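Input sequence (83 aa), recorded before submission:
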Amino acid sequence: MRVVECVWWDAWISTDDIKIKKAEKLKPVKRSTVGYLIKDCEDWVILSTDRFYKGKEVSAPMVIPKGMILEYYEYADKDEGPD
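Predicted structure, token format:
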């Protein structure tokens, strides 16, 4: 499994009441996520924070649309790990 980093624009929400002029200046949050690459599709990537060798399971999967990705780095290609 490959270990990758995605630098991407993330959506966020605030429940505060603010003036429209201030709301017009809001921007998405630039975020960086590192994880095991589960799948690389045409329109999105799926990363996982953890992987379990026994049972071939993962946890905390994250789907990031490619239109939100600014940068993409590949760090390692991990083997199947211990038995």
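Checked by second reader. The first strand starts at residue 2 and ends at 10.
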